[in-house]
Fold:
Amino acid sequence: MEAATSTFDLINRIKDGDQEAFSLLFEKYRPRLAVLIHYRLSPEQRRLTGVDDVLQETLLKGFRDFHQFTYRAPGSFLHWLSRIADHAIADLVRFQGRQKRFAGELLSLRSESNPSGVEPVDSFTPSRFMAESERLRALLATLDELPEDYRDVILLTKIEGLSTEEVAEGLGKSRPAVALLLHRALKRFRQLHQEQRKF
Structure:
């Protein structure tokens, strides 16, 4: 039997009308989705827009379109969210190509200065958000230090949740070659992470 906070269970709770399960589900996937978005945006796009804007738009669309999601297997929810993020990024690129972003065209979230805005998807307190942001920055800094092939295999397996067989098929490599690459990438990641924690 799966734990009460498993993705499968949270999805069933949402379908049964449990609104709190939405926040729990999105909170569970928020960090991994932020990493995926970070690496799918170009440095220029990150400078102009920021990962948080795309992340929030993705979660809002996921909340709005949740009725369209069908659980198929572990990893299917993150895969669904990552496709939404891809569409959000594509929309952003098209929009930036046409004109500068107008503040009035952005989705305004509810705040003290905008009480009629849309309710945010999650309920992160500022301290929780800052703690997560620090962990996310540390993770991204470590990933940025890796060679591109190491970073890519970690993103595909540990963030997107693909199997080594799926990664091998996507990269046109053998499964043992991907497994060895992943082993080396994780070893180097751990070394870099340990070095960064010393400072």
Observations:
- The chain is about 70% helix and 0% strand.
- Residues 101-106, 122-127 have pLDDT under 50 and may be disordered.
